Amino acid sequence: MIDRLEPLVIRHTFRVPLPTDPVGEGAIAARQFDAVLLSVGFKLSADLLERLSGLSEETVVRIAESTLRTVRELVGDHVQHNAYFIDFPANVPDTEDFWMACVADALGDEKTRADTLDQLATGVVNLLSLPAYGRYQHTYAELLAAQDELIAAAGDRLTVLHAGGEPADELTALYLALAGSSTPLDEEHQRDLRALAERCVDGPQPEVIPVREHRALVNQARLTVGSALLVDTVTDVLRLACALSDGDVTLAEPTRFRSLSRPVRRALLAALDSVVAASPAKLSDVNVHREEWKRLGERLHPHEYPQWPHAAEVFAVARGERKAPSFDGRVEELLAENDVLGAVKLLKSAPGKLFRALDRLLRTALTQEERDAVVAAAEQVAPEVSGRVVLSVREHLHNRARETGELRVFVNRRGRAWVTDDARAVVGPVERERLIGVLDDETRRRLPSPERLLIDPEVLDVALPLSGKATAAGLGVLPRGSLSAVEGELLRFFVYWKETERRTDFDLSALMLNADYSTNTWLSYTSLTEVEGEHSGDITEAPDGASEFINLRLGAVRGAFVVPQVNIYAGEGFEEVEESFFGFMLRESEQRGRPFEPRTVRVKSELRGAGRVALPLVFLRGDDGRWRAKWLHLYLKGSPSANRVEENRVTVANLLRGIVERRQLTVRHLVDLMTAEATEVTLWDGETVPDGPVTYIGLRRPDELPEGSRIVSLENLRDLIPD
User: Fold this and answer.
1) Do you find a cis peptide bond into 22, omega within 30 degrees of 0?
2) DSSP collapsed to 3 states, 297-318
3) 464-502: b or e for each residue (b if 16 or more CB lie within 10 Å)?
4) Closest Cα partner for 80 from 620, 595, 666, 433?
5) Which CA distances in Å does 337 have to 332, 340, 365, 420?
6) Which of 122, 206, 584, 681 counts the most CB atoms within 10 A of its CB?
7) Strand ranges across the sheet with 695-697
8) DSSP assignment of 165-223, as one string?
9) pLDDT band at 256 (very low <50, low <70, confident <90, very high)
10) Residues 6+ apart with CB under 8 A from 605
11) pLDDT band at 2 (very low <50, low <70, confident <90, very high)
């Protein structure tokens, strides 16, 4: 099992697990391994190269094969990226000329001539009926033969792999980090946590598992080996039941519960009984997910187990046979009566709920006494609120300084986004500033104050990872709202997808907007060439996988924004296809090479969201003329079919305006708070090695830092969020 799970360590930490034996002469194999890694934009650290050289050649080869598979998948090089136009980005034809060439080809084919003539007679031709349209006209090998070799450039991506410890120790450390995370994990991390929990359930455990959905995955493993379950609410049991049915442990989506074995039913009912027996008031939580409890009751058969009467009460509440007024219901009653002071008094017993209700309480308050009471209550309970909630409310208040009438963006847990006018009343500036002061003081109290702080400037504009739901799995992916510099002359997007059962057509497009968010132009299958660049050609089916590319010359871009998007024209959704991902490469003008060159890939992001239009990120031109990427990770509902950039440009522009103008809480905010007068702060230049231990915060882990240093990089950025 360790061999199967070792790639998880590499993907999450860029550390290569190493055995202590057998020793040998692996130097030649290690150097060959390092050389092959360079072709995909990775390299071995000096320490890792040295340690591999001391292992047997057979061991080095085994590690190399596994590691290469993992990093190639990380960057998207595990599949073949063909392009419709074999010379892309050279010799891409004018769109209408290309369509006419496809028509001419169909007229020259006896099998399609008659049908094509009939269509021409009507004045409308279906491009999909033309044999030369939408299907590769050459093999991948032929594309490789037609392309020049890539010319290496100093700006090509180079990701360093570091030496890890024994595989078992590395897996345990990764399990503890994921299970003990104070912020919710994305879907990929949740899957990995589930796999790690199965292996690590009998070993060391985190002191606390603060995120309830993580606890459900750990409980699933504990149930399998007969360990005591970690439950203290009835909802913990419901989440566990969802995990056992491969459902949604966040409870955002309904789960179709499977038939459960008798031992499992007994364990779940016993857990429910103990929770309610210890605190009958927790029955009120049942009302929040009443329908889910009804469906689960059909699988658990609580009437067959009279020894657990308190568990039966849970299902009685769900069926409405027993009353259990919910906490939220009592708060709503008080607010309906305009009793703000009463609501505040009640909410103080649930600090997290009080913090989430602060905006509403301040908008509802009619007197200064009520507003003062809200702020005083927040200050009193702040030490009991999780750091993630404190920072989330701080970011919310940061954006409430705007005037009424601004756009308000909503994003659900699955990345579905929509925008509307913000009709809420303003929050009083005095109370807002007082609360911001309370929140900053509380955050500062929890943060460490390192003596020496080494900061990579590139990390300062990265949005705080307050939730894994605001990002996606992949390489170089940043949380929603993050800003990162774009250095290079040529920007090339790519999308890859492979259909599962039905013919599926993804369309890569790029929308160019002016500074006022009006449309300038676009590149897509309906506009193959523009001043800015070229589209690689439309592929309309992907039984064996398919790729589309857009090549942009940044210096030629008109407008202030470039919005890449993936539209589903037909077939399966992002969560239905076998595989789909988006990314971008950066090249210099003299670099040729294949349409897809792994060492030039800066980002590869999985496409797994709800909706028919994906908006991974947007590129913004600053006042200084330099380009930066702002991460979106958004999905629009779109239409069931035939989504096109021309049809959704107004929606995209409105959404983009709401996102771009929203101010994110970034790493810079925490760095400012943790920097005391005695702290020595140094901006890292990428080369200089400090002469003693430091706390390093950056996008990438440096090759060498003094022993005893604390390292926070993109892989463990969530560790910055205080408990």
Assistant:
1) yes
2) HHHHCHHHCCCCHHHHHHHHHH
3) bbbbbbbbbbbbbbbbbbbbbebebbbbbbbbbbbbeee
4) 595
5) 9, 8, 12, 28
6) 584
7) 680-683, 452-455, 695-697, 710-712
8) --HHHHHHHHHHHHHT-SS---HHHHHHHHHHHHHHTTS---S---SHHHHHHHHHHHH
9) very high
10) 472, 473, 474, 477, 581, 582, 583, 616, 633
11) low
78 near 72, Cβ under 8 Å?
A: yes
pLDDT of residue 545: 97
Give, for 111, the enclosing helix (H) or strand (E).
helix 110-122
Q: What does the pLDDT look like over 632-686, one tens digit per residue?
A: 999 999 999 999 999 998 889 988 888 888 888 999 999 999 987 778 888 988 8
In angstroms, the CA 44 to CA 158 distance is 10
- What whole-number distance in Å separates Cα of residue 484 and Cα of residue 162? 24
Q: Which two tokens stand for residue 176?
A: 């503890």
Pairing of strands 490-498, 579-587: antiparallel
How far, in Å, CA of 242 to CA of 254, rounded?
A: 9
In angstroms, the CA 364 to CA 49 distance is: 63
**Mean pLDDT over residues 411-424, rounded?**
79
Question: Which residue bears the tokens 């996988």?
Answer: 545
Q: Of 496, 616, 598, 605, which is closest to residue 547 (Cα–Cα)?
A: 496
Q: pLDDT tens-digit profile of 307-355?
A: 999 999 999 999 999 988 888 888 999 999 999 999 999 999 999 999 9
CA distance 191 to 195: 6
Name the packing angle between helices 262-278 and 309-318 (round to 10°). 90
Decide if 516 contacts 661 (C-beta within 8 A). no
CA dist 250 and 268 (Å) reads: 18
Question: H or E element: which one contains 43?
Answer: strand 42-44
Q: Identify the residue whose tokens are 């290309």.
A: 98
Helical residues (DSSP H) of 525-605, grouped into ranges: none
d(CA 201, CA 188): 19
Phi, psi of 253 (to 5 degrees): -120, 145
Report the C-alpha gap between 204 and 206 in whole angstroms.
7
- 387 CB burial (10 A radius; 0-12, 13-18, 19+): buried
CB 331 within 8 A of CB 347: yes
User: How far is it, in rounded angstroms, from Cα 37 to Cα 41?
Assistant: 6
Q: Which residues contact 668 (CB under 8 A, 6 or more apart)?
A: 460, 461
- Residue 89: cis peptide before it, omega within 30 degrees of 0: yes
- What one-character DSSP code corresponds to residue 99? H
Taking the alpha carbons at both ends of the chain, their separation in whole angstroms is 33
Q: Which residue has the tokens 């702040």?
A: 382
Predicted TM-score (pTM) of the model is 0.91
Element of type H or E holding 628: strand 627-636
Q: What is the pLDDT of residues 452-470, one digit of tens each?
A: 999 999 999 999 998 877 7
pLDDT of residue 540 exceeding 90, the answer is: yes
Sign of the Cα torsion 232, 238, 239, 245 reads positive
Q: Retrieve residue 163's tokens.
A: 């030496």
Which of 469, 649, 663 has its CA nearest to residue 563? 649
**Tokens standing for residue 716:** 């463990």
